[in-house]
Amino acid sequence: QVQLVESGGGLVQPGGSLRLSCVVSESILSMNYIGWYRQAPGKQRELVANITTGGTKNYVDSVKGRFTISRENAKNTVYLQMNSLEPEDTAVYYCNGHRIFIGTDLEYIHYDYWGQGTQVTVSS
Q: What are 23-72's pLDDT values in tens digits?
């Protein structure tokens, strides 16, 4: 069973920075996508940023220019550097690994692995 363990959340003032880390129990290059989602109270979980096996990075519009996703393959770790944090960034942040398998009928099968989540609170 693949395990993802997040760390780095906490309380920070508006304008501050945090770096989240996610350590994966298997090679992160085995994931078609590896990245971060967040869920604020009363809202749906949303994709924040991810990175493909080939290194393509994707960001939700609201974090572009403020957040940076990166990975360290040798350590099976993916990071989310969050700068210029805003109260609207307050949420539980989840590490996600996404794999695509080929089924017996040659269909695509999608599977998600999740971490336990880490709380990020932006408040003065």
A: 999 998 889 999 999 999 999 999 999 999 999 999 999 999 999 999 99
Backbone CA torsion sign across 117, 16, 35, 30:
negative
The dihedral built from the CA positions of residue 37, 40, 41 and 42, taken in this order, carries a sign that is negative
pLDDT per position as a tens digit, 59-114: 999 999 999 999 999 999 999 999 999 999 999 999 999 999 999 999 999 999 99
State both tokens at 123.
């408040």
- Integer-rounded Cα radius of gyration of the chain: 15
Paired residues of 57 in beta bridges = 51
| Distance (Å, whole) CA 118 – CA 6 | 6
Closest among 13, 20, 11, 8 to 85, alpha carbons compared: 13
| Residue 56 CA: distances (Å) to CA of 35, 79, 116 | 11, 15, 25
Q: How far apart are CA 92 and CA 7, in angstroms?
A: 11
